[in-house]
Amino acid sequence: MLKELISLFRSDQPLQEMGKNFAAMLNLTYEMTIQAGEIFFGGVVSPSDSNSLYQRDIQVNKLERRIRKQVIAHLSLSGSTPSLPYCLLLVSLVKDVERIGDYAKNLAEVRQYHPLPLPDDEFVAELQAIREGVEQSFVQSREVFVASDRERALDLIREGRSLTHRCDMLVARVAASDYGARDATAVVMGARFYKRIAAHVLNILSSVVMPLHKLDYYDEKELPPEFADLEGTADDEDD
Hints:
By secondary structure, the chain is mainly alpha-helical.
Protein backbone atom coordinates (compact mmCIF):
# COMPACT_ATOMS: atom_id res chain seq x y z
CA MET A 1 0.00 0.00 0.00
CA LEU A 2 2.82 2.43 0.80
CA LYS A 3 4.21 2.19 -2.73
CA GLU A 4 0.82 3.18 -4.11
CA LEU A 5 0.63 6.10 -1.67
CA ILE A 6 4.08 7.34 -2.71
CA SER A 7 3.03 7.02 -6.35
CA LEU A 8 -0.05 9.14 -5.68
CA PHE A 9 2.10 11.71 -3.91
CA ARG A 10 4.10 12.09 -7.11
CA SER A 11 1.09 12.27 -9.44
CA ASP A 12 -0.98 15.22 -10.56
CA GLN A 13 -3.81 14.20 -8.30
CA PRO A 14 -4.85 16.21 -5.21
CA LEU A 15 -2.83 13.87 -3.01
CA GLN A 16 0.35 15.37 -4.40
CA GLU A 17 -0.06 18.50 -2.26
CA MET A 18 -0.76 16.32 0.77
CA GLY A 19 2.50 14.50 0.09
CA LYS A 20 4.43 17.76 0.02
CA ASN A 21 2.89 18.81 3.34
CA PHE A 22 3.68 15.43 4.88
CA ALA A 23 7.30 15.68 3.75
CA ALA A 24 7.46 19.15 5.28
CA MET A 25 6.17 17.74 8.58
CA LEU A 26 8.86 15.05 8.55
CA ASN A 27 11.58 17.62 7.90
CA LEU A 28 10.34 19.94 10.62
CA THR A 29 10.09 17.23 13.27
CA TYR A 30 13.54 15.95 12.38
CA GLU A 31 14.90 19.48 12.81
CA MET A 32 13.03 19.71 16.13
CA THR A 33 14.56 16.44 17.31
CA ILE A 34 18.06 17.66 16.48
CA GLN A 35 17.46 21.04 18.09
CA ALA A 36 15.90 19.51 21.21
CA GLY A 37 18.96 17.28 21.63
CA GLU A 38 21.25 20.27 21.37
CA ILE A 39 19.22 22.10 24.01
CA PHE A 40 19.00 19.09 26.32
CA PHE A 41 22.71 18.27 26.25
CA GLY A 42 23.98 21.80 25.66
CA GLY A 43 24.93 24.75 27.80
CA VAL A 44 22.97 27.93 28.30
CA VAL A 45 19.58 27.95 26.56
CA SER A 46 18.71 31.28 24.98
CA PRO A 47 15.12 32.52 24.54
CA SER A 48 15.65 32.43 20.78
CA ASP A 49 16.46 28.69 20.93
CA SER A 50 13.22 27.91 22.72
CA ASN A 51 11.21 30.25 20.50
CA SER A 52 12.61 28.65 17.35
CA LEU A 53 11.58 25.21 18.59
CA TYR A 54 8.07 26.34 19.47
CA GLN A 55 7.68 28.04 16.10
CA ARG A 56 8.52 24.78 14.35
CA ASP A 57 5.99 22.98 16.53
CA ILE A 58 3.31 25.50 15.50
CA GLN A 59 4.16 24.85 11.85
CA VAL A 60 3.87 21.09 12.37
CA ASN A 61 0.45 21.46 13.99
CA LYS A 62 -0.76 23.70 11.17
CA LEU A 63 0.43 21.18 8.57
CA GLU A 64 -1.36 18.36 10.38
CA ARG A 65 -4.63 20.29 10.33
CA ARG A 66 -4.07 21.25 6.68
CA ILE A 67 -3.52 17.64 5.65
CA ARG A 68 -6.65 16.53 7.51
CA LYS A 69 -8.65 19.24 5.74
CA GLN A 70 -7.18 18.21 2.39
CA VAL A 71 -8.07 14.57 3.03
CA ILE A 72 -11.67 15.46 3.89
CA ALA A 73 -11.99 17.70 0.83
CA HIS A 74 -10.51 15.02 -1.42
CA LEU A 75 -12.76 12.25 -0.12
CA SER A 76 -15.83 14.43 -0.64
CA LEU A 77 -15.18 14.43 -4.37
CA SER A 78 -16.89 12.00 -6.68
CA GLY A 79 -14.60 9.16 -7.74
CA SER A 80 -12.27 9.45 -4.76
CA THR A 81 -13.20 6.08 -3.26
CA PRO A 82 -10.15 4.21 -4.67
CA SER A 83 -7.82 6.50 -2.72
CA LEU A 84 -9.67 6.03 0.60
CA PRO A 85 -7.17 3.49 2.03
CA TYR A 86 -4.25 5.76 1.19
CA CYS A 87 -5.94 8.73 2.83
CA LEU A 88 -6.50 6.67 5.98
CA LEU A 89 -2.83 5.67 5.94
CA LEU A 90 -1.77 9.28 5.58
CA VAL A 91 -3.97 10.46 8.46
CA SER A 92 -2.46 7.79 10.72
CA LEU A 93 1.12 8.68 9.77
CA VAL A 94 0.49 12.39 10.21
CA LYS A 95 -0.48 11.82 13.83
CA ASP A 96 2.74 9.92 14.52
CA VAL A 97 4.82 12.72 13.02
CA GLU A 98 2.97 15.33 15.06
CA ARG A 99 3.66 13.35 18.24
CA ILE A 100 7.38 13.32 17.45
CA GLY A 101 7.29 17.10 17.46
CA ASP A 102 5.54 17.11 20.84
CA TYR A 103 8.13 14.80 22.39
CA ALA A 104 11.01 16.81 20.95
CA LYS A 105 9.52 19.89 22.57
CA ASN A 106 9.11 18.00 25.87
CA LEU A 107 12.74 16.89 25.69
CA ALA A 108 13.95 20.48 25.38
CA GLU A 109 11.72 21.54 28.27
CA VAL A 110 13.59 19.23 30.64
CA ARG A 111 16.21 21.96 30.89
CA GLN A 112 13.70 23.96 32.92
CA TYR A 113 14.22 21.41 35.72
CA HIS A 114 17.95 20.98 35.16
CA PRO A 115 19.47 24.25 33.92
CA LEU A 116 23.04 23.20 34.74
CA PRO A 117 25.21 21.01 32.44
CA LEU A 118 24.55 17.28 32.77
CA PRO A 119 27.14 15.16 34.59
CA ASP A 120 30.02 13.68 32.61
CA ASP A 121 29.34 10.05 33.54
CA GLU A 122 28.29 6.67 32.15
CA PHE A 123 24.56 7.39 32.37
CA VAL A 124 24.77 10.56 30.30
CA ALA A 125 27.20 8.86 27.89
CA GLU A 126 24.62 6.11 27.32
CA LEU A 127 21.89 8.68 26.79
CA GLN A 128 24.11 10.46 24.26
CA ALA A 129 24.54 7.15 22.40
CA ILE A 130 20.77 6.65 22.41
CA ARG A 131 20.34 10.17 21.08
CA GLU A 132 22.70 9.48 18.20
CA GLY A 133 20.89 6.24 17.41
CA VAL A 134 17.47 7.91 17.38
CA GLU A 135 18.67 10.75 15.16
CA GLN A 136 20.27 8.33 12.70
CA SER A 137 17.18 6.15 12.68
CA PHE A 138 15.04 9.18 11.89
CA VAL A 139 17.25 10.18 8.95
CA GLN A 140 17.30 6.69 7.49
CA SER A 141 13.59 6.14 8.10
CA ARG A 142 12.72 9.12 5.91
CA GLU A 143 14.76 7.61 3.08
CA VAL A 144 13.30 4.13 3.60
CA PHE A 145 9.76 5.54 3.66
CA VAL A 146 10.18 7.31 0.32
CA ALA A 147 11.83 4.25 -1.27
CA SER A 148 9.33 1.87 0.37
CA ASP A 149 12.30 -0.40 1.11
CA ARG A 150 10.83 -3.30 3.10
CA GLU A 151 14.11 -5.07 3.90
CA ARG A 152 15.80 -1.92 5.18
CA ALA A 153 12.65 -1.05 7.10
CA LEU A 154 12.87 -4.40 8.91
CA ASP A 155 16.49 -3.70 9.82
CA LEU A 156 15.58 -0.27 11.17
CA ILE A 157 12.66 -1.69 13.14
CA ARG A 158 15.04 -4.12 14.82
CA GLU A 159 17.50 -1.33 15.57
CA GLY A 160 14.71 0.95 16.79
CA ARG A 161 13.34 -1.67 19.16
CA SER A 162 16.85 -2.12 20.52
CA LEU A 163 17.01 1.62 21.20
CA THR A 164 13.71 1.60 23.10
CA HIS A 165 14.97 -1.31 25.21
CA ARG A 166 18.16 0.60 25.97
CA CYS A 167 16.05 3.52 27.17
CA ASP A 168 14.21 1.20 29.58
CA MET A 169 17.47 -0.30 30.83
CA LEU A 170 18.95 3.15 31.42
CA VAL A 171 15.94 4.18 33.50
CA ALA A 172 16.29 1.01 35.58
CA ARG A 173 20.00 1.64 36.14
CA VAL A 174 19.42 5.22 37.26
CA ALA A 175 16.62 4.12 39.58
CA ALA A 176 19.00 1.66 41.27
CA SER A 177 21.80 4.21 41.64
CA ASP A 178 22.54 6.90 44.21
CA TYR A 179 22.11 9.65 41.61
CA GLY A 180 21.01 13.03 42.89
CA ALA A 181 17.35 13.90 42.40
CA ARG A 182 17.90 16.63 39.79
CA ASP A 183 20.32 14.60 37.65
CA ALA A 184 18.15 11.49 37.91
CA THR A 185 15.06 13.43 36.85
CA ALA A 186 16.81 14.86 33.80
CA VAL A 187 18.32 11.58 32.62
CA VAL A 188 15.15 9.56 33.18
CA MET A 189 12.96 12.12 31.42
CA GLY A 190 15.47 12.32 28.56
CA ALA A 191 15.43 8.54 28.19
CA ARG A 192 11.65 8.41 28.20
CA PHE A 193 11.25 11.16 25.61
CA TYR A 194 13.86 9.62 23.32
CA LYS A 195 12.03 6.32 23.68
CA ARG A 196 8.77 7.93 22.58
CA ILE A 197 10.43 9.63 19.60
CA ALA A 198 12.00 6.31 18.57
CA ALA A 199 8.68 4.51 18.98
CA HIS A 200 6.83 6.91 16.69
CA VAL A 201 9.58 6.61 14.11
CA LEU A 202 8.95 2.86 14.36
CA ASN A 203 5.27 3.46 13.68
CA ILE A 204 6.18 5.29 10.47
CA LEU A 205 8.40 2.36 9.49
CA SER A 206 5.56 -0.05 10.19
CA SER A 207 3.73 1.44 7.20
CA VAL A 208 6.42 -0.06 4.98
CA VAL A 209 6.01 -3.62 6.27
CA MET A 210 2.48 -3.89 7.70
CA PRO A 211 -1.03 -3.73 6.17
CA LEU A 212 -3.16 -0.69 6.98
CA HIS A 213 -5.20 -2.31 9.77
CA LYS A 214 -1.99 -3.32 11.58
CA LEU A 215 -0.13 -0.02 11.47
CA ASP A 216 1.82 0.69 14.66
CA TYR A 217 1.96 -3.05 15.45
CA TYR A 218 4.88 -5.32 14.68
CA ASP A 219 3.08 -8.64 14.46
CA GLU A 220 5.29 -11.71 14.49
CA LYS A 221 2.99 -13.35 11.92
CA GLU A 222 3.81 -10.60 9.44
CA LEU A 223 7.57 -10.53 10.07
CA PRO A 224 10.38 -13.00 9.40
CA PRO A 225 11.25 -15.29 12.36
CA GLU A 226 14.25 -13.19 13.39
CA PHE A 227 11.90 -10.25 13.98
CA ALA A 228 9.33 -12.18 16.01
CA ASP A 229 10.11 -10.22 19.16
CA LEU A 230 9.23 -6.88 17.60
CA GLU A 231 5.50 -6.93 18.29
CA GLY A 232 4.47 -3.65 19.89
CA THR A 233 3.05 -0.21 19.40
CA ALA A 234 4.08 3.32 20.27
CA ASP A 235 0.55 4.08 21.43
CA ASP A 236 0.87 1.89 24.54
CA GLU A 237 2.15 4.83 26.59
CA ASP A 238 0.66 7.85 24.82
CA ASP A 239 -1.89 10.03 26.50
